[in-house]
Amino acid sequence: MKKVFAFVAMMGLLTFGVNQTINAQETESPATEEVAQDEAVDEADDAADSASVEEEDAPKGLHKTIKVKFIEGSAGFMSLVAIAMIFGLALCIERIIFLSLSEINSKKLLEDIQAALENGDVEGAKSICRDTRGPVASICYQGLMRIDEGLDVVERSVVSYGSVQASNLEKNLSWITLFIAMSPSLGFLGTVIGMVQAFDDIQKAGDISPNVVAGGMKVALITTIFGIIVALILQVFYNYILSKVEALNTDMEDSSVSLLDIIMKYNLKFKK
Fold first, then answer.
1. CA proximity to 182, closest of 239, 243, 223, 217
2. Buried b (16+ CB within 10 A) or exposed e, 11-50
3. Fewest CB within 10 angstroms: 12, 112, 201, 262, which?
């Protein structure tokens, strides 16, 4: 009986201990799961916050920055500045292409003309000029057209036609200077209107505070900046175009003098 009672008591203690252990695990597991879920949520929130901060700190593209500033600077005046830049750049590109096509190897052209005239082939020299582009070839052709009328007539013809070609080289430059002057002027006009807007906001609010003045001042400064930038860009292209025009004018003058020398030698050789 003692053995049976001890066995029953032992079984009861074991059963009671197992039940207590299971109950403890059941009560601890929900709490552990809740803690784990809370930690996961916190980590997700921290990751989202850090991602948003990184997105804010990440540098924007140049075109996006320009687009944002364009909108912030009042689309009306910024559009006028953009139109001035577009027309100015279009004229600059047209002049650069025209002047680039007008540049030739004038030294080789004169050598070919001289070689033809030394053989008495005036028509061949004219054909060389007709087949060559540019103002230098045109001036030489005009001189050869009057080669039989005397050196004085040839010189007057070359000088007169050279003035016409120089005017063609400088075509549309006045419009480029207009857009160079307009761009900062439009920017300053936006500045004045932005200042007026700032004072209107102050009057409506009845208080001078940074938040009230900031909007108008921002519009004023952005329009001025863009106007000056456009003027600087167009000025660089304008100066480059002027340098090419000066180079072509110098080339035409030198070629005219050389052509007169070639014609004089031709007259001395074949018009004795």
1. 223
2. eeeeeeeeeeeeeeeeeeeeeeeeeeeeeeeeeeeeeeee
3. 12
CA distance 235 to 229: 10
* C-alpha pair distances (Å), 91 with each of 78, 97, 174, 233: 20, 10, 10, 13
Q: Are 159 and 257 in contact (CB under 8 A)?
A: no
**Longest CA–CA separation in the chain, Å:** 163
The 10s digit of each residue's pLDDT in 217-258 is: 666 677 888 888 999 999 999 999 999 999 999 999 999 999
> Any idea what DSSP says for residue 103?
-
Under a CB-based contact definition with an 8 Å cutoff, are residues 91 and 172 in contact? Answer: yes
User: Is-contact 96 241, C-beta < 8 A?
Assistant: yes
Tokens 């072509």 correspond to 248
Contact call for residues 190 and 224 (beta carbons, < 8 A) = yes
Rg (alpha carbons) of the chain, rounded to whole number: 43
